[in-house]
Amino acid sequence: MLKNRKINVMDSDVTLYSVSTENYISITDIAKYKNPEAPADIVKNWLRSKNTIELLGLWERIHNPDFKLVEFDQFRNEAGYNHFVLSPKKWVESTNAIGLQSKSGRYGGTFAHVDIALEFASWVSVEFKFYLLKEFQRLKEAETKELDWSVKRSLTKINYRIHTDAVKEHLIPTALGKQQIAMVYANEADILNMALFGVTAAQWGAANPTETGNVRDHANVMQLICLANLENLNALFIAEGLSQSKRLQRLNEIAIQQMKLLTEDKRLKLSRGKK
Questions:
Q1: Could you report how far apart the first and last alpha carbons of the chain are, in Å?
Q2: Can you give the pTM of this predicted structure?
Q3: Which of 100, 141, 225, 248 has a Cα-to-Cα distance from 179 of 20 to 30 A?
Q4: How confident is the model at residue 162 (pLDDT cuts 50, 70, 90)?
């Protein structure tokens, strides 16, 4: 989950957060536009509507293979009657829904996937919905520009490394000793890290406490190409039943060979370009 962000819509702060590539918006914050004192009541009134239950059910059927249809049908049959009351938490727990998420704590409340949140905003106020959509789009455009800048900056760093002979001399992995090969590593990622970089993720982090990310975040293009090849080969070696130590030994030998080829190929291209 990413850190909470806020946008201002018609002088009201609305909280957002992302899970992977999906965006969620606080419908509790949206409800405060209509009733700042009791936003939870606004959300519950919205959930009482049969149209709302059908909307939520449709979204879940499209996006959620684990959605519980039997429980959903029970809610749909009761929705609209005077006795029907439904909280976001009960909806999520009963149907295994993912479109709504109920959170506790200081920044808690009810969050909805952006598709659903916009429908709720339209129910609260059509005008508020239009301004919410405008601000949300503005935020996503700003994030895209920031990402593009970050990618360009990373590529510039990578190109600088590739074109520096002094750095290339250190790209060739060192052959692992018998003791390193014999060790039992916690996961397959560290097998690949040892084969290519000569260190585990934890060892790299301990040696580079001021650096952000992990050892792979600081790899260049040639190392990433080699790493992708090693991942495929490791899967094949696992299928063949090779032990961890044997796989590590072979992957390290292959990494040395491939990095030599990649760096020599780059040197050849650079020398030809200078002529």
A1: 51
A2: 0.53
A3: 225
A4: very low
